[in-house]
Amino acid sequence: MEKFKSGFVAILGRTNVGKSTLLNSLIGEKIAAVTNKVQTTRTQIKGIVNRENSQIIFLDTPGIHKPKTKLSNIMVETAFTTAKDVDLILFIIEATSKEIGKGDRLILEKIKESGKKTILVINKIDLVKKEEILKLIEMYSKEYNFESVVPISALNSKDKETLLKEIEKVLDYGPKYYDEETYTDQTIKMIVEETIREKALKLLDDEVPHGIYVEVQKLKKGKTMEGKAIFNIEATIYCERESHKGIIIGKKGSMLKKIGTYAREDIEKTLGEKVNLQTWVKVRKDWQDEDEIVKKFKIDN
Q: Alpha-carbon distance 224 to 227, whole Å?
């Protein structure tokens, strides 16, 4: 029997390169919000992959971007703080890149400073020709001594297995940190808030930027009239402007109803129980610069 391997792996990359999609794909469960908009992941999210001879604990991080608020400063700080205390870094770049841009260069410099073992993951390879991928590999290989370079399409199961095997090769022998049923350290409250925010971001126009914040006020498990288990959840979507509030609610409440319906369906799948979800919208100006809220997104390492 092979010796058991384990370790902590940080997923680093610019905003919108597919980090959360990859994390969800690797662990086979939906724990990180996935949208086509930047700055979706606001906190470090832990996902656990249990394999026959290994346990891999993934730490997703906020995308690297130019900070403009206290919140975005915390997001970037979180990403780099996470990378300091892991066994391995997955550095995700896009196959469509023609050069090493400012964001990728910043991450690369931080990796060089840390000297951490790093696997370069080239995502979205289905969008480019093979020659373009080879050019990227050559360009980045001159910059750092990567453990390996893995070109992938995040949702391709073969690519997923290839990447997991490469990670296993790099990890040292170690203990099983979590039991086999555990796939995240996210609380139910955090999963609910992430899910509602994801649905809102997917459905809303670009008029409503990332100035939304979801907070669960009530989460109580009860029983239906038929005696079946049900989660009663009340949540508020905070936005920064009155005009945004109108967009989120929609005509006769249509948009808010749609957000709530899609979120409830996803939450029910995740929890395996019926859910009664009620949502409200409130304006909270400049919340991204409020210390009370921003500190919730800070990690203490």
A: 5
Of 170, 205, 237, which closes a domain? 170
Residue 180 resides in a domain: no
Q: Which of the residue ranges 46-60, 64-78, 156-170, 186-200 would you say has the lowest mean pLDDT? A: 64-78
Q: Is the pLDDT of residue 152 over 90?
A: yes
Query: Same domain, yes or no, for 241 and 143?
Result: no
Print the domain residue range for 248.
188-297
Same domain as 127, residue 226: no
CA distance 297 to 93: 24
Residue 109 domain-assigned (yes or no)? yes
Residue 156 and residue 17 share a domain? yes
Q: Model confidence at 208, in pLDDT bands (50, 70, 90)?
A: low
66 occurs within a structural domain = yes
- Amino acid at the residue 292: E
pTM: 0.63
> Within this chain, do residues 42 and 118 fall inside the same structural domain, yes or no?
yes
Mean pLDDT of 263-271: 88
Domains: count for the chain? 2
CB 233 within 8 A of CB 192: yes
Q: In the predicted model, is pLDDT for residue 47 greater than 90?
A: no
State percent of the chain over pLDDT 70.
Answer: 77
